[in-house]
Structure formats: C-alpha cells, structure tokens
Amino acid sequence: MRAIRTKLLGIEYEGKENFLGGTRIAPSYIRWAIESIEDYSPHLDGSYRPFKDLGNFHARWEWPPEKFSRILENCLKKHVKKEDRILFIGGDHFITYPIARALRAIHGDFVILQLDAHLDRRDVFEGSRYNHATVMRRLEEEGFIVYTLGYRAFARGLEYTTERTFMFRILEPLEDIIDRIEAPIYLTLDVDVLDPSVFPSVTNPEGGGVDFIELLEVIKMLRGRLIGADLVEFSPIIGDHYRSGVIASTLTRELLVALKYSAS
What topology does CATH give the domain 5-263? Predict the structure, then answer.
C-alpha cells in the first residue's frame, strides 16, 4: 500500500470578469508570506511539513475559461494519484470547476463544501457561462452535491438557494452536515467568507462575514474527512495585502495540516 502524500499546487488563473484583479499572483505571494509564520499549528497540533510543493500551474492570459479548464483537468488526471491530498491555491474561484471534475475521475463521488460570501450560481455572468460567478451552478448541473455556508450576497432572480445553502452561519449547520455525510469532502474556501475587517484583500468584499477563529474551527472539524481543498480569491494588490497575506498563509498551513490528518 502506497503512503498518502500531501502536496501544494498553485493555480495562476484569473478570468476577465473579475471586478478587480490580482488573484493570479496569490500563489507566489502566499509562498513568500508563509516564511514569516511558524510551521506548527497550535490549533490543530501539527506541522504542515513535510509536504511536496508542485509549484504553479500558469494559465496564459489569452486562454478562454473552457481551454484553461480542459488543460488543467487533463493535467490533473494524468499526474494526481489517489493517495495524493492536494491543496490548490488560486487564482479565482473558477479553478474549482476543473479540479472537481478531475478529482471525481480519480476518487469517485465526493461532496463539495463551499465557504463563501457569494452563491456563485449565476447561469451567465459578463457574457460567459464559465467563471467565478457561475462555478457552483455548473458543478451542480454535472451532478456534484454542493453545500454552501456563509453566503450573505446573491443576485435575486439570477441565482437560487436550496436546502444546502446556509446564509451567514457556518459552525452550526456544519456539525449537522458532517454527521449526515458519509462521502469524502472537498473543501473550497473563498477567503471573502471572512469579514473584510479581518481579510480586506478580496475582489468582492461583503460585510458581516465570519471571524478568523470561527474559520479555524471549521477546518479543525473537517480534518479526517478531506480528499483535497482549495483556497481562492485572495488578491495581493488590494487593501492591506501583507496582513491578508499572513492570514492566507496561516490558512494554508492549517489546511495542509488538516489534509495530513485526513491522510492518516
């Protein structure tokens, strides 16, 4: 039996629909900022090392989202093994679409847990059906089960809510969700789920978000259940980028530790 491995892969992709730019440089910024924090997580009682850093997947500016998605999905299908537990660092939220499709081919069915200030369930946004504002709708259309927690903004008449979408609250519904779900879980963490007073460097901030400790509790609850995770929508060119960068790096550490627990 081959040993489970934790890995990190940056995805340098950003669609042209973003209100403000900068998310494609987040993977490199997080790698720089993580040097300023400790390896050990007192919250999860573990170190994120050792792990294998796979570097960055660079999407060219001229690639339309469909081409980016196809190339990344095929690349992951070829190179990711079932024993891998990978944290993907975006990039905008559309990266979850090709990642989820590729991982389903590798792992079989799993549940997607989305922590986000937005539903991301428009049918079309800025003339495109494939971007950060439509990603969860596209995944649900392809049969993925998606639970969304923490949303506090949506386009009325253009997006939908279901029994699996939870406004504002995270911890209370998550306890029930984890108890009921028997399948593995993939976590997609849009950092705008945090209140902008905590994490200002996002392209679409929404007030009334969760605090940092609550988010750490969520990650702690998910250890042992994750087949993979992504962290998206950090823009180092917006707001207090160093403060946000250190928080994003801390979340990167916590997620890598949680994936190591999941791999044990």
Answer: Arginase; Chain A (3.40.800)
